[in-house]
């Protein structure tokens, strides 16, 4: 009997997501990946931190695409995401061509609400880059956003489209980073505008697609 072929580092799902076998993904049924997303080794994604609700549909697990578990429905990704973003049992949504680097941590944001400590969904857009060892607890990360290595994005923060977070920056909880702004420092403040010297993450789709293409080769 011939020896079994060695397994590659990455699992590739039906929608083209490339997920390292050495990543730590908890609560896969509460995570939606839009397709062509990369999750590197030792990245931690906490889909198990979600706001439970008695009204949650038991069909949630059939509409998620994660590390080789579940299949994408025949409807488009955008409509599926829109239908699930308001579902409290969906903890994390990540758009297309996003890249989660090694040892990065994604956690849903949390806060006290009516005397109860609750988690809220973390929504990440398309063409988002999360650097090594970054910690993200934002409420919303727009499209074409760059989050540098060792950066911290605090609970319930909002990063608008085309925002750029420098390496080591600490975005305070609840802070809103406007579109096309560069933030840095601890605590983070606006230090410039996206333009010369700060490329748009996934601009025209080229950078993100090239990064995706070389993963696993």
From TrEMBL:
UniProt key word Transmembrane helix: no
GO cellular component, one term: dynactin complex
Location of region: Disordered: 50-87
SUPFAM superfamilies cross-referenced by the UniProt entry: Trimeric LpxA-like enzymes (SSF51161)
Principal cellular location given in the protein's record: cytoplasm
Record InterPro entries: DCTN5, Trimer_LpxA-like_sf
Compositional bias segments (type: Low complexity): 52-87
Pfam families registered for this protein in UniProt: DCTN5
Cellular location(s): Cytoplasm, Cytoskeleton
Keywords on record: Cytoplasm, Cytoskeleton
Gene3D superfamilies in alphabetical order: Hexapeptide repeat proteins (2.160.10.10)
Protein name: Dynactin subunit 5
Phylogenetic placement of the source organism: Eukaryota, Fungi, Dikarya, Ascomycota, Pezizomycotina
């Amino acid at each position: 009997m011939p020896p079994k072929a060695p397994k590659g580092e990455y699992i590739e799902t039906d929608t083209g997501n490339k997920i390292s076998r050495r990543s730590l993904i908890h609560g896969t049924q509460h995570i939606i990946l839009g397709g062509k997303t990369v999750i590197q080794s030792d990245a931690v994604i906490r889909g198990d931190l979600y706001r439970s609700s008695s009204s949650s549909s038991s069909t949630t697990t059939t509409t998620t695409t994660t590390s080789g578990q579940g299949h994408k429905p025949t409807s488009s990704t955008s409509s599926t995401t829109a239908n699930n973003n308001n579902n409290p049992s969906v903890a994390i949504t990540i758009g297309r061509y996003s890249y989660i680097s090694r040892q990065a941590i994604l956690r849903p944001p949390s806060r006290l609400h009516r005397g109860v400590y609750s988690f809220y969904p973390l929504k990440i857009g398309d063409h988002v880059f999360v650097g090594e060892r970054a910690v993200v607890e934002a409420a919303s990360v727009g499209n074409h956003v760059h989050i540098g290595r060792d950066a911290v994005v605090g609970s319930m923060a909002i990063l608008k489209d085309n925002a750029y977070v420098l390496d080591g920056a600490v975005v305070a909880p609840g802070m809103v980073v406007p579109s096309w702004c560069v933030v840095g420092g601890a605590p983070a403040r606006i230090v410039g505008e996206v333009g010369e010297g700060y490329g748009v993450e996934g601009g025209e789709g080229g950078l993100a697609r090239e990064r995706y293409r070389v993963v696993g080769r």
